[in-house]
Amino acid sequence: MASKNELQNTLKEKYGINKNISDSLSQAECLALLSVLNSEPSAAKLAKSYAEKNSGLAKNNAHYGRMRSQAERKLETTKNEYQKLEASIKLIEADKLNLEMRRKQLEQERAALEAEVQLLSSTNNALASKVQGLTTQNDELVEANTQLKKDNKDLKNIVDQIRLRLARDTKLLLQYEDSEIRKVLIRLFSWTLG
To answer: Is the pTM of this model over 0.70?
Structure first.
């Protein structure tokens, strides 16, 4: 008598019944099934039809299994990409917040600098007015100094003329005999000449 394994191989080769189907049968049941299929062509045809259908279902099952595996891998990849995008979005939002704070800080600094520039401009204008006033005063002082120098020169010339005339007149007076006049004139002359 053939072994169960040999009977299963015969069922597979002759009628297309896979071992995974015939595995649940005992050796005696495998032998009985083989006997029925050999004696009844309609049962053999039905078994072949089931075997073909089973083969088609197995192919479909394998195909859908591959598609499911691909879909699961794609889902996993999509989840990973989604998590990366989530993390990237959080980083971008944090950067955006930091940039917004920096923009506000720069706006405050710009406003402070504009106020400082305005103050410096006002101070500069005040100093320019002061410099203009001092320049005008300086010009007036230079002009007054020039005039004073001229006046001093004129006064010196007048004083020199007075001294010269006084000396000449005194010389004439000294020629007179009166000693009192002479003494007074000498004192006056000494005092005037310096």
So the answer is: no
